[in-house]
Amino acid sequence: DGGITQSPKYLFRKEGQNVTLSCEQNLNHDAMYWYRQDPGQGLRLIYYSQIVNDFQKGDIAEGYSVSREKKESFPLTVTSAQKNPTAFYLCASSLRTDSYNEQFFGPGTRLTVL
Amino acid sequence: GDSVTQMEGPVTLSEEAFLTINCTYTATGYPSLFWYVQYPGEGLQLLLKATKADDKGSNKGFEATYRKETTSFHLEKGSVQVSDSAVYFCALRTPGGSQGNLIFGKGTKLSVKP
To answer: Across residues A70-88, what is the average pLDDT?
Structure first.
């Protein structure tokens, strides 16, 4: 079955630690995205990538980093510089970044900082 | 900048009631419009979409019509079920930009009681 997988489902981190969230897709999509979801605030874009070896900052990129070494994979690292990292993180992909291409979402990773 | 405004929730309805969730948008150009649904603890699923004015998106009994004159994309369902309880997000994507990301409303939580 084609789709997007994210792991782990739940992640706990101590303050000062970096953590990496996994996102893999087998839809052969060029574009991938990371969103952060906070209660009552909808989703906000962290980073996106239109093609392998290329990525761009979104609206709230500070304290995060990404890589896109393979078409299928777009891992997100939450660094210790992120002041308030506790949130629900969603990865998405689309065939391209054209406006009419729908985005498909993974099941999400809930990160909690202890 | 581009934005989406949704009616605030939560919305509580009895089974078989009529549902309307209002969504209005501000955007340059001619955006594509989407409704996504999020069930508890899960990622987002595309519910329906419309890519040009007067298009009607429909799926699973839900409908929304792209109204350019009122910049609206209201979600409706004639008879809701308990299984429709979820958070609903209205979103847009504008053409021509390099970002290609979705801009979301804050979400409307729907609870359907038996």
So the answer is: 94
